[in-house]
Amino acid sequence: MAVSSMITARPRIFSGMQPTGTLHIGNYLGALRNWTEIQYEFEPIFCVVDQHAITLYQDPKELREAIDRTAALYVAAGIDPQHCAVFVQSQIPGHVELSWIFTCVTPMGWLSRMTQFKAKTQSKKEESIGSGLFCYPVLMAADILLYQAQIVPVGEDQSQHLELTRDIAARFNSLYGETFVMPATRLPAVGARIMGLDDPTQKMSKSSTNPNHAVSMVEEPKRIQKLFARAVTDSKSGVDFDDMADGVRNLLNIYQAFSGDSNDAIRSEFEGMRYGDLKKRVAEITIAKLEPIQARYHELMDDRAELHHILELSAERIAPIAEETVKLAKQRTGLFEKTVR
Question: Roughly how many angstroms between the first and final C-alpha of the chain, as a whole number?
């Protein structure tokens, strides 16, 4: 099959999140909401990347629960399973199979330059670091190229991995002939980088151990109010747009990302506002925007059969795409091919 025949009339997009912890408003405003807004422009494939999660040890029982939580939040946030593929990575064997083929054509030097690998291993002893963590970007490349995705909506912190994906595709195509399309990135303009409430110099993260760091998408309203009330600002009494601390800017970014207001409207509304009032306003809009998401999330978590049915239908729908790509890659590389009698 020619590569051109695997490219659809509407560009195919692929993106995914790890099922570690619970998704927070940074995940929602930086990625998940962006997916919902662009889903009808493209042929969308959204994945819960559980095989990436086990590059670091995960309690098996908790991982299974986290997979369901993440998938439920995808759908609850507005991903339409009638239009989009919503599935779990380990449902499709082709992710791992293609990853091994890519591992064999990816120079170690490319992987050793990955900044996220360096960041995750700084405080760890070498013998405790699994090789899966080192090869993580290769699996990410396989995730994308398995479906011949043309567009990948990613955050800024993943842009280096997408460049590696393009490099791997180009190297494979150079060695074995034109096989994979070159994916492009698409970054959301507003809300792309929400910072921690406890430390506004660091991106909001699921891995933080500080209970005041992030606002979970399933957080109770009273807890949301407390989290924003404790958010770091500065020693001033009110908002000063000409001399603004990181924490204040982060709160305004969250409000603007939820409201969609223009920069001028935000300045007009919040200039000089006392920090206590600002925090209340941000908490109010966060609670209001999360309320319908939480309602649908709890419905799905209370009916796992419905949730798993959604995942199974999507996996069945996209499995032929993955199988065709793996078949083509194996043909190109000269791996065993069954003779049809």
Answer: 20
